[in-house]
Design brief:
Beta-Lactamase, Helix Hairpins, seven-stranded mixed β-sheet, transmembrane, nucleotide-binding, cell membrane, HATPase_dom, kinase
Length: 454
């Protein structure tokens, strides 16, 4: 009992937390029930129409036969031939008799499709007797009744044969039709209809189950979206909180540098400053990712010649390149104006040029910028290790970093190129990579021209 109660409690709790399941259960019950009731109503109407058609057919047959029988009631041979013809043409006919008037509770059989019965007396069962007496009371119409015998359905019908000069009954036309064949076809059709209905219901249930799963997925997606938003808010808040003490640490580093220190202490201070700077850059990347994902990063687009901005970025990396023994160069020229946010554009160039210098161990890093058709195209080329075709497809994904012997000692978050790609797209530009493993890498950034510089 406790187990059942626990299961029931969990079920109620699940439905309360997932109200869409009520809608699904409602549809699973109502739609099949509606199909069932509609089908049952249709089959009921079809059966009624079939019965009405059979009664009408029997009535017409008896009306016609009674019409000429009253003029030939004494000519039993003529009537016998007509009965045999009708019985032969109607394969469901099991009994066709022309009866005389009632004698007690018996009726003389004048003509029968079974010739041996002619001249004998029919003592009908109570049902048939009632049918014949009803026909006598209503001589102008055929009277029919449905009976079952041995599990088979029959239509028994009686029609009074009236005198030629009055409506007095002088005989009866009595017929019995077996509905076995028609009922078999009807049962088979009903069975097929119910099987089709069952198949439809199963398909509907499967569709509703799938719909319920889709609703669950949508609910789960919304929850994940909310959690992801909470995560972004937390990361953004944490990054801001980390940046404040880092600024203080770097301030103290600058103060200590003004003091006279031993050579070893200066090396320690340099390492501390380098680590603080690296952590500050990482925090900056995290904040940029949060802003881009939330759509909160603003872009102040202005038409500018970016050659000066590129040159400034190149100059800022000259010392690092020289320390690594690299040649860092830029073919500076006047460029057409493009619509960019200058600060964001410099951040893009810092990421790309910085990566080129960082991942190139020997050789050079060369930057070009030129107008190609309706775009200003900037190419950052290096002679580094290169990137495989497989890694190129993942290069602009978050947190992806190329892993090989040449890059394993280089630190990074794997966010820089994702941020760069998002910023380029936000300013209507394009970025792509061209690289051959072991030969070097080219990053190509293009922005549409807004106006040629005079």
């Amino acid at each position: 009992m406790d187990t059942f109660f626990n299961i029931l409690t969990r079920g109620v709790h699940f439905v309360r937390n997932n109200p869409q399941i009520i809608y699904t259960i409602f549809l699973v019950i109502v739609i099949p029930l509606a199909f069932f009731l509609t089908s049952e109503q249709f089959l009921r109407v079809a059966r009624e129409d079939q019965n009405r058609l059979e009664r009408s057919r029997i009535g017409v047959l008896q009306d016609v036969f009674a019409l000429f029988a009253k003029w030939n009631l004494d000519d039993t041979k003529f009537l016998h031939d007509r009965v045999r013809v009708v019985a032969h043409e109607t394969d469901t006919m099991t009994n066709f008799q022309v009866l005389g008037t009632e004698d007690g509770e018996s009726f003389p059989i004048l003509v029968s499709m079974n010739g041996e019965e002619e001249g004998t007396m029919l003592t009908p069962d109570p049902h048939t007797l009632s049918l014949l007496r009803t026909a006598m009371a209503h001589p102008a119409q055929s009277v029919s009744s449905e009976v079952f015998n041995g599990g088979v359905r029959y239509w028994r019908s009686a029609r009074a044969i009236t005198a030629t000069t009055s409506n007095t009954a002088v005989g009866y036309v009595f017929t019995e039709l077996s509905m076995a064949q028609g009922d078999y076809v009807a049962r088979r059709n009903i069975f097929d209809a119910y099987m089709t209905l069952l198949l439809i219901i199963l398909l509907i249930i499967l569709l509703l189950i799938r719909q319920a799963r889709i609703i669950d997925y949508a609910t789960l997606y919304q929850r994940l979206k909310d959690i992801d938003s909470m995560k972004d808010d937390f990361v953004s808040m944490a990054a801001h909180e980390l940046r404040s003490p880092l600024t203080t640490i770097r301030g103290y580093i600058d103060m200590i540098r003004s003091e006279k220190l031993s050579k070893k202490a200066e090396e320690y201070l340099k390492d501390i400053d380098s680590s603080a700077l690296r952590l500050n850059l990482m925090i900056g990347d995290i904040l940029d990712v949060a802003k881009l994902q939330a759509g909160r990063m603003s872009f102040n687009l202005q038409s500018v010649d970016v050659s000066e901005d590129i040159a400034a970025v190149i100059d800022s990396f000259q010392k690092l390149a020289k320390d690594k023994g690299l040649l860092l160069s830029f073919d500076r020229r006047t460029l057409p104006l493009i619509a960019v946010d200058t600060d964001r554009f410099r951040q893009i160039m810092i990421n790309l040029v910085g990566n080129a210098v960082k991942y190139t161990s020997k050789g050079e890093v060369h930057v070009t910028a030129e107008a190609i058709r309706d775009d200003v195209t900037i190419r950052i080329s290096d002679t580094g290790a290169g990137i495989s075709a497989e890694d190129q497809g993942k290069l602009f994904q978050k947190f992806f970093r190329v892993r090989n012997e040449e890059t394993e000692r280089v630190t990074g978050t794997g966010l820089g190129l994702w941020i760069t790609n998002q910023m380029v797209k936000a300013m209507k530009g394009t970025i792509m990579v061209e690289s051959i493993r072991g030969k070097g890498t080219d990053f190509v950034v293009s922005f549409p021209v807004t106006e040629n510089k005079k």
